[in-house]
Design brief:
The protein has three helices and six strands. By secondary structure, the protein is an alpha+beta fold. β4 (about 55-65) and β5 form a beta hairpin.
Length: about 110
């Protein structure tokens, strides 16, 4: 999740990276390998610092009932408060930008 500073620095990268696309891996619409929101935020900060455009395509969030949570801990806490023992939070792929945390609603185009 850490980009090389030299790759994002246009002076040391004559080809110049103009855009980074972040998309949590999905396999047939289901979550693939782990992609934590904190990692996405780290990449966002690196791109902003380097002046590289960014497009956040899809992320993972935790869902319980009709609510989305950024971490499993938040979803589990809400689950305990709900007294719903029949269901448990699930990791889901989120593609709709309106459901992203506000700071990750970034879809800059070249």
């Amino acid at each position: 999740h850490q980009l090389s500073a030299s790759l994002c620095n246009r002076k040391s990268n004559p080809m110049g990276i103009s855009q980074i696309i972040i998309g949590a891996e999905s396999i047939n619409g289901r979550p693939g390998r782990e992609c934590k929101i904190s990692w996405v935020r780290d990449i966002v900060q690196q791109c902003k610092a380097a002046g590289v455009k960014l497009f956040v395509k899809q992320i993972y969030m935790w869902k319980f009932g009709d609510r989305l949570f950024q971490t499993e801990e938040e979803a589990s806490f809400y689950h305990k408060l709900s007294y719903d023992s029949g269901n448990s939070p699930k990791l889901v792929l989120v593609r709709d930008i309106k459901d992203f945390p506000a700071d990750l609603r970034i879809q800059e185009r070249i």
